[in-house]
Predict the structure.
Amino acid sequence: MKRWQTHLQNSITTSKQLTSRFALPLADIDRVADIYPMRINPYYLSLIKQPGDALWRQVVPDLQELYDTVCIDDPLNEENLSPVANLVHKYPDRALFLVSNQCAVYCRFCTRKRKVGTKSMHINFETINRGIKYITETPAIKDVLVSGGDPLLLADSRLEYILASLRAIKHVEIIRIGSRVPCTLPMRVTKKLAALIKRYHPVYINTHFNHPDEITPEAAEACSRLADAGIPLGNQTVLLKGINDDPIIIKDLLYKLLRIRVKPYYLFQTDMTKGTDHFRVSVEKGLEIMQSLIGHVSGMAVPTFAVDAPGGGGKIPLLPNYIKHMGRQLVFRNYCGVTCIYDNPNDNTEMRLIHGEKTAHRC
């Protein structure tokens, strides 16, 4: 058995196992884990410094998950946007392809916590082939995001089958993989795995670090293997109350990501997933954090702050409001609060005269 598989096999899934490491009364954990499973592999467990810290809160069940009266099971309306099981077709030219129902750890804030790690998320060779068939028969799809669960927990042979099948579809130009494995189980990223993925370029990987303590030498090595294989790496961080809703923590995280060749991509407002309301931070707080970043850290380190609109509305970028007036002159403030003026060209009027007044368009 491979090292990474041994780690998974030895994961903590019950309160009794967790109590053997931390001398705390943790019986209530099982009440939550019966509904929303717990998995903490030994590697990620070793990063937890003490109960209640930023990493503990991300992976250890909390009774608050059972008393969420605000959020809903499927906030992004994925089930109704699935023409075939485990494939979400929300945007015209992109598809989300769910190929695994397992993760190296089960994050307590997961968008799909209603089904990841449970019997209700049924994925097998047949469902994967149905997804490939749908993509093949839908020429509008140019970009496929392979996700789950975590696709990098699949056996190499199964992952290669999926990547080879997608690369054989002429209209699929870009393949993306969404995986938290470089963060939560970095020993899975072997040289063999990196070489396998490299064969199907262009392939991009978006990974998921939420806190500076997750960026370890092991995680750095995993990301280096992927980057050395020519795979561009992006990071999607979720803004989480009491974990990373602090400008200092976020700045530290972003610069550490750049040092391991991972480009900060998104900072997400927490989805309105049932069982996660206690993690949600106000949008105003997120905008304050963005204002502390823009102009104060390298542009390479600044992610896009976004909310994934409930009901399947898609990702909406959110920015601090720098504009004071929009007209013949654009009056705005810079990152220091200083008022600036830009002479605004009036080319839109000329375009309307040439093409008439039919400027409205539909999405």
